């Protein structure tokens, strides 16, 4: 299966982008040419405008004369951290509630599923904005807010899978030989859910990266001076028509990372879903 | 059919009630102290107490919730802290612009998604198909604010083909609608492709082919109608994406809809406005889902029998 994934150039491209971002985030202090917070006094033009890309500042400078490349490299930490933490939490919560609803069914299952119906009715971004406006945003609050919005879809998918799993004969058989509910869940139900969690965990990171960037762009996400790809664009809004590099580079970074996770998630889904194999 | 509709309607009402509970929670329970936000920091204890009584915050929670519900039934979403106006008035004055933007976005996503999906299905497995599928994922992965800013920069600032933001004529609508519709266009291309592939696998297509129908005719007449109608019937489900997207697109283009209202409210930490728009958007989403549920059995009579 892994070989199938690695043979596809498009998936390989996605994996390479993810790997590069992870490396940039881990090695930020070594890779970044300058400190992300240093305001160079030769970093602005005589009129006080940001500088375009040059030999000294590879991707140009921002409104305060800081090196854009260094801010982007440090910003990858924010994007990845929130992507992994927020989405990990969403997958955990979604799986927990989905399994509980699918296994218990009855009134508990009904209550949980009606609650997910309700949450589905809220537009994700607006709910996140409302929550972020109420709790003064910090990196962890943003991660929490995104997790609180994103678990819903995973819960529904896991619920559907669990409720069809528990009707299968092998579950009935293990119940018949006296296995308790915990044992059934841990050794029979959860292993079957791993592919689903893997696929939706990967695709969810793309959604999370985009949501964090959007919240930060709107000013209710990660607050400057902590660099995030979204808040770099937010901070530099006034210069957007004269200094397009301040949108193009962070924008490209967000797009590439989200696309990479979408490509890999898509490939994983095709590879892990046996009914899809051999089709298309 | 009637029971199907009645059940869907009942579910919708139930969800609407749930929405009021969540918005009540957001409005009155979570903020540190709404009274302080209205009265300001320097208010005397007497003023604070009178505002508290005015808002009914001295009553038990369930009574407060019922009063809130009662106000909602008369269309009262509360007052904006910053603009000293009714939230309902603000939203109503902004709604037409947002609806116009959404109509534009629906046109864009169908015009992009359906033809490209058909093309990809026709060229299935070939480079065109692969390229289109990567392109559609790219559209789905593109942050809308970046797309909006870049379109604005290239086509309005540099080329001067369209006005730099604002509202009014058709040319004002083009760039915002394109930005909002692009994401959906990516999804529609993927959905149309897989729906077309499902249809093309069916026996009646083989029959048509055996009768000598040309491949263009099979694709466009026999397959497309069956593949595309269920997809078009699901447009109601897009309202959620649009409501989120409207905040971003309207703030980038200065489009005077409810999304821009939220964006302005963010700057002023005007929570009643944010929550009010969230509630209205949620109602639209419920309505959109209901529309999709009602349309489905008309488009695909097999659903009726289930």
UniProtKB/TrEMBL annotation, chain B:
<feature type="transmembrane region" description="Helical">
    <location>
        <begin position="101"/>
        <end position="122"/>
    </location>
</feature>
<keyword id="KW-0813">Transport</keyword>
<feature type="domain" description="ABC transmembrane type-1">
    <location>
        <begin position="95"/>
        <end position="296"/>
    </location>
</feature>
<feature type="transmembrane region" description="Helical">
    <location>
        <begin position="273"/>
        <end position="299"/>
    </location>
</feature>
<feature type="transmembrane region" description="Helical">
    <location>
        <begin position="169"/>
        <end position="189"/>
    </location>
</feature>
<dbReference type="Pfam" id="PF19300">
    <property type="entry name" value="BPD_transp_1_N"/>
</dbReference>
<keyword id="KW-1003">Cell membrane</keyword>
<keyword id="KW-0812">Transmembrane</keyword>
<feature type="transmembrane region" description="Helical">
    <location>
        <begin position="12"/>
        <end position="32"/>
    </location>
</feature>
<comment type="similarity">
    <text>Belongs to the binding-protein-dependent transport system permease family.</text>
</comment>
<dbReference type="InterPro" id="IPR045621">
    <property type="entry name" value="BPD_transp_1_N"/>
</dbReference>
<dbReference type="InterPro" id="IPR000515">
    <property type="entry name" value="MetI-like"/>
</dbReference>
<feature type="transmembrane region" description="Helical">
    <location>
        <begin position="134"/>
        <end position="157"/>
    </location>
</feature>
<keyword id="KW-1133">Transmembrane helix</keyword>
<keyword id="KW-0472">Membrane</keyword>
<dbReference type="InterPro" id="IPR035906">
    <property type="entry name" value="MetI-like_sf"/>
</dbReference>
<protein>
    <submittedName>
        <fullName>ABC transporter permease</fullName>
    </submittedName>
</protein>
<feature type="transmembrane region" description="Helical">
    <location>
        <begin position="227"/>
        <end position="253"/>
    </location>
</feature>
<dbReference type="Pfam" id="PF00528">
    <property type="entry name" value="BPD_transp_1"/>
</dbReference>
